Amino acid sequence: MNTCSPPTGYLMENDTRPAGGKEPPGRLFVTLAAAVAMVAALSLVPWSRLTAGFLKDFNLLEDLAGEVSALPGEAGDEAIDPALIAAQQQAQARIKAVSEAVAAGAEVPDSLLRPPVAPRRGDLVVLEDYSPGGDGLARFRNALARRHTRPVRIAVIGDSYIEGDIFTMDLREKLQERYGGRGVGYVAPHNVVSGFRPTVRQTDSGWADHDLRDDNSPLCRWLAGQRFTGAPGATVTWRAADAPPHVTGWNSATILFRSSGTGVVATDSGSGPRQHSITPSDRVQSIIIRGGMTSLRLTNKSVNGLTLIGVWLNDSTGVTVDNMSLRGNSGITHRNVDPALAREMAPLADYDLIVVEYGLNALTARQTDYSYYASAMAATLSRLKESYPRADIIMMGAGDRGHKRGAEVHSTPTLPYMIDAQRQTARRAGVLFWDTREAMGGDDAIVRWRADRLVNTDYIHLNFRGGARLADLFAKALDDALTQPDSPLTPPR
């Protein structure tokens, strides 16, 4: 291709550069200065205040100015929970009114609440028991006493902090080693991180997942917050992992579903395929398979309108720990859990202990008032208690999270405010609370955990080694509470 170019030194029309193409003296400096001024101006706009928290404030000159900045991931590498955004926007006027009242000396009546307890007993960060009777693990303790006749079910609901069975895989192993039981418990027919999870090998095709943050189906309104649809031909296979020891097999598989159509579902647990005839019903239906197995294959052969609620792979006795993580979830959408659906599922998938792990997705580096979040999470805990009345509840405080100041990383400065809001939520709900950040080591723990290669480079998420460390700390606190039923925690004198 031929091109025509002006000869060297030729000045094109309206070109004010001298021959040779050099810029006039000072023009480059003016352009650079204008760009810097524009960046600085954008950085000074109070985006968070103007958008009610929808957009975060930022400072594009932070490394030069030495201001606080977000680490990779803090600005939202996960989907933002729409319910959290709505709660933030709705709470602005109320937050302002409460802040003004507190500044004027007003106090919120708190006479019916048990006083806060010390979070430590020696080196152990304890479970803080805010139940009215001071024994918030009574139901769970009684369930453990019956573990030889039925499975003791524990659900850990949370966000990407526990994604891929991080934390829960090691907690499960510790509890199954002590109390018996095998298998991984709840598994989803489709999971975006199934290849990342080491405790069960999964392959699937044809399944679509839906969750309660953006799906209005009543079948999403339970602990896991998900449902799965698959047309004829959809299939999924789970295979036991080689380690840890208690996930290498199980003797019970429970499949819960609803169907608006007729047809056949096939299963194969290693002893050959079985056909299950499906009929329409507006009630939860089940397929239960018994006997030792190390794999399960499930295929929708011919059912239109099939919705899987979940599948459980565990022993019929001992303990099972279900990992139920939703990336980007703040926890407040669980206010919409349906007690009627929970009762319908209870004969086959009820719970004795629910561990609630949330908070980091609602945290910002400049916000110190989390009363709106505490109020929303109080509604969540209330709904969980209503939906699962036989379960004790432990609320985990947010873990430590890194925040960059200049070239250094420290703990996010507003974390204590979030954790205080979570602790007060647990107090008002009458459930147990565990200060995750304090257990990790308190201020700047995230820096030390990163130095020990226990968290990822985002200074937020645990890796599997970090999950194992945290599970060990949590299991010790749980064991301490279980072995002291007559000694409820009290504040130091």
How would you characterize the overall build of this protein?
There is one protein chain. The chain is of the alpha+beta class. The protein is built from twelve helices and 20 strands. The chain has helices spanning 27-44, 47-50, 62-65, 82-103, 138-145, 168-179, 339-349, 371-387, 415-429, 436-440, 445-451, 464-482, and strands spanning 68-69, 120-121, 124-125, 128-129, 152-158, 185-187, 200-211, 226-240, 250-259, 263-268, 273-278, 281-293, 295-300, 306-314, 319-325, 353-357, 392-396, 402-405, 408-411, 432-434. The strands form four sheets. Strands 6, 7, 8, 9, 10, 11, 12, 13 and 14 form a nine-stranded antiparallel sheet that branches. The chain has a six-stranded mixed sheet with strand order 4-20-17-16-5-15, with helices on both faces. Helix 7 packs across helix 8 (371-387) and helix 8 (371-387) packs parallel to helix 9.
